[in-house]
Amino acid sequence: MSRRLYGWLTAVMASVPLSLGYLLADALTEVHYRLFPARRHAALANLAVILPRASRRERVAIARDMMRSHNRMMFEFFRLPHLGRSELLEAVDVAGREHLEQAVARRRGVIITCTHVGNWELAAVVLAQWGYVLHAVAGVQLARWLTPAVRETKSELAIHTVAPEDGFRKLLRALEHNDLVALMVDGDQFSHGTRLDLFGRETSFPAGPAVLAQRTGALILCGYCERVRPGRFRIVIEPPLDPAAFPDSTSLIAAVARTSERHIREHLGQWCIFRPLWEVLPDRAAEPAAAERSVEA
């Protein structure tokens, strides 16, 4: 049933003229903003950290831009299964493709880190259309009951979805085969992170890219896919981060965080994150005491 409904949704969206689809997505921005208070509060809380000197009115305007971008991304996402290869590639400009080609030539696999800017799903399909085997880590997508249908559709687009609970084994195997591994890094949603400063405040940042790179020698490429205008996109692939150039995984993931921070800051209006990134972290001073009590017990 979920596969049938998802197929119906993609077919309907693909039949809607591009201009009308974007018009409807934009028109629903205020509905998104008003009817989803948890998303609204999370976006404003994140923006308060990133833009501490901005007024509330300025942050509210950006939060609306973020929701407008998310609405547009969802319209584009449902159209993806019905886009032809030539139509897709003609809609995208690319900067830094040579970095990807050089990294693949090393034959140690490639780790791609990305933020929720613009349309990250479209970027994954473009990489697959270039002929690369892509493994993307993703949890629940759209809704739990729709996740199998989404994953099945992605597999038809040559994207292999890896669940967080699968651990590193599948990712290590993919890198051994010189495949691409894509990891979203704006938000440690799987609770396996390294504490570091992001936008001047401590948070937990995903450590997976650095751990994988240190174990395999794979290069890390940070990138994003921005929407230049309705129906037009630009993929940017940064120069590689070589794990051999960093003394440990902590310094490597800090470099990934700095690059990701720049990507987010430069595209705040297209940043589609609606969960708070700066949760209250455990008191470090209390940790040794807790460990001591555990030993005594």
Automatic annotation (TrEMBL):
Pfam families: Lip_A_acyltrans. It is found in: Cell inner membrane. Its main location: membrane. The keyword Transit peptide does not apply. GO terms for molecular function: acyltransferase activity. GO terms for biological process: glycolipid biosynthetic process. PANTHER family: LIPID A BIOSYNTHESIS LAUROYL ACYLTRANSFERASE (PTHR30606), PHOSPHATIDYLINOSITOL MANNOSIDE ACYLTRANSFERASE (PTHR30606:SF10). This is Lysophospholipid acyltransferase family protein.
